[in-house]
């Protein structure tokens, strides 16, 4: 059996989001984002109070501890670090014309630390943290005016950081908007009151904004590369029935359309048919069509699980914790949160995306959420997370197999490389990191950092460029 090899220059690191680690929700001129009032806050609230159970307002205090955390990433050997810029730190309301200098200066300091350690930044422009004002005043991305606000924001970032940041992502998991309209699309109208027309129009606005950002980057920061970011969800037929195979195709199409537009610059025929059959006519201008031709340089994606699909109404059920739908696969085990564990699915999706789009691929989220227990070993506090090591090892072996298949993979940044506050539940008990953060769901804890067992394991994987992985 051949050894697992990764290409020279493969980018190893980890991934985070501003709203889940920074804290300092009211410092440095920052405005409120949609995350500051969810999930335990009230949608549409004008203020957020730093109550013990609203963990996102403090996060893990990266805003004040970024130098310490980046030093830990460097100790692991990171060559890249994915983080997001909080839109409401740069434009507190989102619709201002001039940016907040204090917010810009914070990310200058973060970049300084990354450069000091030789870590390449991978920056997400919008990661589920749209300014709350845009949700309340414009109903988020249902309003075409958000394209211009985002364009101003993106241009500001490219002009300020374009010489320092090579890799950019426009929207996090852009294909989640239909399923989580407030978190993903800052749409303030309750989900049950939204029409499909509104949701698809919001999707179109985000796609146009993403394409405009790509165009601006090429004008302002010609050495930068811009990628889209999609939530990947490989799907299997629950049975050999052709009807189940058609269900798989339909499920795939509902996710692949976002990557198709980002890489091809036009809406595919199957999507136009879907709109027609739903009686939806999108407001698409000639300028929009021209904008969409600004296709991305690479495709990045998250991968956590796969699903199955069936045409049999009696067998349809939504997997626990899976906002994208689908049917649980009886051949797979699941995590504590009901997410089915499928390393081979990562190889399959890498091949599917490469064959379909012929763009370099970047795995920017993957990982296992678990209830870690801090223990003491030889006087040192740590977490014996062999379950996480096994999960990541098995997934990385499949990445190596995809590379051997001929897929061009740029890098791998597992999610929550340091424990973060959950975006969807605001818990800290669902931990992904190589670094344990002493903070609990009730807000107690010292915020002290401790290296888990997986910290040393991942450091060795990086040091050997994947040779330390075991089949």
Automatic annotation (TrEMBL):
This is Glycoside hydrolase family 1 protein. SUPFAM superfamilies: (Trans)glycosidases. The active site is at residue 365. InterPro entries: GH (IPR017853), GH_1_N_CS (IPR033132), Glyco_hydro_1 (IPR001360), Glyco_hydro_1_AS (IPR018120). The lineage of its organism: Bacteria, Bacillati, Actinomycetota, Actinomycetes, Micrococcales. It comes from Microbacterium thalli. Signal peptide: none annotated. Belongs to the glycosyl hydrolase 1 family. The keyword Transmembrane helix does not apply. GO terms for molecular function: hydrolase activity. Keywords: Glycosidase, Hydrolase. The keyword Secreted does not apply. It holds the Pfam family Glyco_hydro_1.
